[in-house]
Amino acid sequence: MDYIVQLTIFVLIWGMLAASLNLYVGYTGVISVAHAALFGVGAYASSAISIRVGGPFVISIAAAVLIGAAFGALLATPLLRIKGDAQVIVSLAFQGLLFSLFNNIEVVTGGPSGLAGIPRVTALGSSADLITLIVVATAFSISITALHRVVTSPVGRILVAIREDEKLALSLGKNVMRRKLEVSAIAGAIAGAAGSLYAQYVGFIDPTQFDLNESFSILCIVIIGGAGSFYGPLVGAAFIVLLPQLLLFVGLTTAHAANWRQVIFGMAITGLMIFRPQGVLGNYEFRGRGS
Amino acid sequence: MSRSSRRSITRIGAGILSVGVAVSAWALAARQSAGAITIGVITPLTGDVASWGAMQRNSTEMALDEINSGGGIGGRKVRVIYEDDQATPKIGVTVFTKLATVDKVPLVVGAPASGVTLAVAPVANRTQTVLLSSGSTATAVAQAGPYVFRFMPSDEMQSAIMANWARELGFKRVAVLYVRNAWGTGLQQAFQPAFTKLGGVITTSQGMAVEDTDFRAVLTKIAADSPDAVFAPLYTRAAGLMVRQAKELGLNFQILGADVYETPEFIEVAGQAAEGVLFTRFGQYNGAEYQAFAKAYRQRFQTEPAAYAGYCYDAMKIAFTALRQLTSGEYTGPAIREQLLNIRDFHGVTGLTDFNGSTSASGKVFDRLVVKNGKNVPWTAKN
Amino acid sequence: MTQFIANILITATNIALLAVAFQLIYAVRRAYDFSFSTLYLAAPYIVLWLSRSVDLPFWVSVSVGLALTLALAAIMDVTLYRSLQTKRAPPLVTMLASFGVYLIAQNVIAAIFGSEARTLRAWGLAPPLEIGGARLTNLQAISTFCAICGVALALIYQRFTRAGRLLRAATTNVALATAIGIPIKRIITTGFLVAAALVTLAAILVGLEIDLTPTTGFQALVLAVTACLIGGIDNAIGAVVGAVFVALGQEAGVWIFGAQWSGTTVYALLLLVLFIRRSGLISGPNLRYGT
After folding, report:
1. Residue C131 burial (CB < 10 Å; 0-12/13-18/19+)?
2. 8 Å CB contact between A99 and A37
């Protein structure tokens, strides 16, 4: 039972991460591999508060949300000025930069040794896994509602239109930039919240948990679930969190079981890209090139 | 998406899911095979430090074969479930939780990475599953909770010994070149005050990322200060490369290594450049137990066992010792914990292990070694 | 001082080789293609297997290894990439599909060869050279020379050969190119094979100088990509210029700030360059894909 609760918590946390990245990728058309950095920023901000200052967990989450929003907007500023493929790399630089800051600014982050002993979410006098699950589920619902609002609002529709047509974006001018920044801040806030919840659940964070590999994982979730679709991120998160676990059960305890699991994972990703690139639930018809 | 394709996807998904569930159920049933005592092992089977995982698996298999061929414990065989933690805290937490709550093992051995141990500790304490760490040396592990045991000496101890040794050898100016992770940073942070307290001077302290393989720039920079020696807690492969590159750059300062230098990989990578490198290693390696272990390991796996292999082996033997004191049906986390705390003089391949009511064992000593003619030999003032 | 210059020269040429190889792959695929990493990983392991297990003399192993790697590249091109091309897959899909393939390759190799470092060297230390006060080894000198040749090859291919020059046309405007009668498939495959040869060269040189592990493919990619983006990914000269900047950034980072900041310096440099000049320092014709 504990195990299932834990898996659900992870699926929801990664669902939040994927949903917020989905906002970037699916709705503003920006490709980012910096999401783990935003995740980490939230986790560290929250932990700095919960370890040093203490207090109700809501405060730590709030700190993470604010800092996440700030960094989300900060990332968006250069990212939105660049076109196409280079976006990936600007986000890569941002990710790399933040990772080295996590690793080197020991006063705040504890450096490579990380921060241990992060207190758990406590409510109603208990810090059981179930309490965390309830809080995470609530946070997830709030995030999804917020995202839904954004996506169905006039702003959201404009964003979808822009995604389909660059020239329209140009003709709409400055206003668009502002809207995109707002959207990015929201995405950052959600990622930060996910970071805070994660830190308070696992109890120990270090820079390696927020590196480029993690960013890639989150991007995979969005693509697998279907960029631009609404429930896609959750499906993708379930897939990425649960598939290795399923494979764990089927696995033999041979020397190379772990390697074979990753092989299966790789085959799953490639297969999906070849046969169903819009992901499981996606409805975003990818435009081909040179058409 | 069209309705029919959505339906077929749902069907396929349901199909896969049910097959998955069926297979898992079968696998789980197979797992709870009659009568065996099951313990868990978490270790990096894949990833950058998979060689540690391989060592862990080898040693564990050796210990298992020994105990099972002797009839097991209380007439029951011992079984191990291995899980790959990829030296990543998040994954470690997931697999440990699975072992504790699904496989319901009372004891888990592992993990070498301190980061994983620290992340897993709260789960161990909460589920009352004993975590017997075969490797984590970070100082924080000692305070990780009542169910987290470790018997490898801490980084602080090793650094202090190295600092003493360096001063004994007359080195006044030492540079530190360390790997920026929990282990390397721990050693660096402990070495600096220890060395300066003895009157030494640290010329510079340079941290490298775990995956760095090119040391020429940092070596050139270190050489600019003309240090007498360089204390270099780096992981084996990096250490080997660094030592080799230093020689190729014509730099001749003395290299002072750490426990991982003792792995065969170091000499393989560094080649001739390894000559004369000094380092410390855990445990009493002269004992008969060690010789027997090393011989059997060499025969079976065609490679020298590193210190860590000895620790993995001892971890299993310590676990068996605790289990043997209990009767069937009593194999629970809290009971095993009690037994471990009572262990006073377990003599294994790593020397003496004495828990004496604490979760951190004492009794280990450090050896001083030098690489001579391509082999690790005990260091004496003569050589 | 001369040591400093020697270090930079060696590093810069090695990165330059990686960068031009990647730039060529990018020119062929118009996407961030992980085949770079897959080939970078496979090539030296194939040579390792040939020289250790099959016991062929070194030079024979290298030649046969190169041939086998090219064969592998051709197979990948004809199976995976042709099908992605026909589906008009957007760059992100290509990136993820190739990432899946890389995951598979990495784990298969780890399963077969183990995860420990292996070296291609059959000897020990390389004989030293001393040039004007700087110490290097003759291996490093040879390596630098080979890297320069490789870079020259890449430049010549894209500037002076028919296949190279048509590459741009063949990949950016497929409809028009087909109409003119350019043999697109052939040009793409040829370009890819040349790139594969360069990647093989780079990987073998690094395998000799340092060693092989299953994870180096990814790091090499990040380095190559960073160099290309600083210099401008549209053309090969940009890749070289970018490589010089990365090398300078790394060395300067170590000297001025300390070894742990060398990565940060490079990323900061990348962001700075992209901020000043969006398409990199040396940009080719202004390309907008998918317009």
Report:
1. exposed
2. yes
Whether the CB of C184 is below 8 Å from some CB of chain A: the reply is no
Whole-number Å distance between alpha carbons of B232 and B227: 13
In angstroms, what is the C-alpha Rg of chain C?
A: 19
C20 near C240, Cβ under 8 Å? yes
E strand map for B67-212: 78-84, 107-110, 130-133, 148-150, 173-179, 201-208
Closest CA to C111 of A260, B303, B86: A260
**HSE on the CB side for A27, CA within 13 Å?**
32
Question: Rounded to whole angstroms, what are the CA distances from B273 to B240, B241, B247, C139, C209?
Answer: 8, 9, 6, 16, 14
Q: Which of B56, B222, A133 is nearest to C3 (CA)?
A: B222
> Cβ distance A85 to A210 under 8 Å?
no
DSSP string covering B250-306, please? T--PEEEE-GGGGSHHHHHHHGGGGTT-EEEEES--SSHHHHHHHHHHHHHHSSPPP
B143 phi/psi in degrees, rounded to 5: -105, 20
Inform me whether the C-beta atom of residue C131 falls under 8 Å from chain B C-beta atoms.
Answer: no
Chain B residues closer than 8 Å to A257 by CB: 45, 82, 84
The tens digit of pLDDT for each residue in B241-278 reads 999 999 888 888 899 999 888 877 788 888 888 888 99
Q: For C69-197, where are the E strands, in sequence order?
A: 128-131, 134-137
Which has the closest alpha carbon to C214: C129, C143, C112, C284? C112
Indicate the pLDDT class of residue C87, thresholds 50, 70 and 90: confident
CA distance between the termini of chain A: 52
Task: Count other C-beta atoms under 10 Å from residue C162's C-beta.
Answer: 8
Tell me the torsion sign for CA atoms A136, A142, A147, A148.
Answer: positive
For the segment B32-54, what is each residue's pLDDT rounded down to a tens digit? 455 788 899 999 887 667 778 88
Please list the residues that pair with B372 across neighbouring strands: B375
Nearest beta carbon to residue B1 from set A112, A202, A283: A283
ipTM, 2 decimals?
Answer: 0.81
Average pLDDT over chain B reads 83
CB-CB under 8 Å, A262 with B101:
no
The two structure tokens encoding residue C235: 């053309």
Task: Inspect the interface and report whether the beta carbons of A204 and B1 lie closer than 8 Å.
Answer: no
CB–CB contact B211 C116 (8 Å): no
Length of chain A: 291
Q: Which amino acid is at A218?
A: I
Q: From C262, which residue of chain B is nearest by alpha-carbon distance?
A: B208
| CA distances from residue A166 to A31, A93, A180, C171, C288 in whole angstroms, order as listed | 15, 25, 14, 21, 11
Task: Provide the CA B46 distance to its chain's centre, in angstroms.
Answer: 15
> How far is the C-alpha of A40 from the C-alpha of A198, rounded, in Å?
10
The nearest alpha carbon in chain C to A256 belongs to: C111
- What residues of chain A, 84 to 143, have a C-beta less than 8 Å from chain C? 84-86, 88-90, 92-94, 96-97, 100-101, 103-104
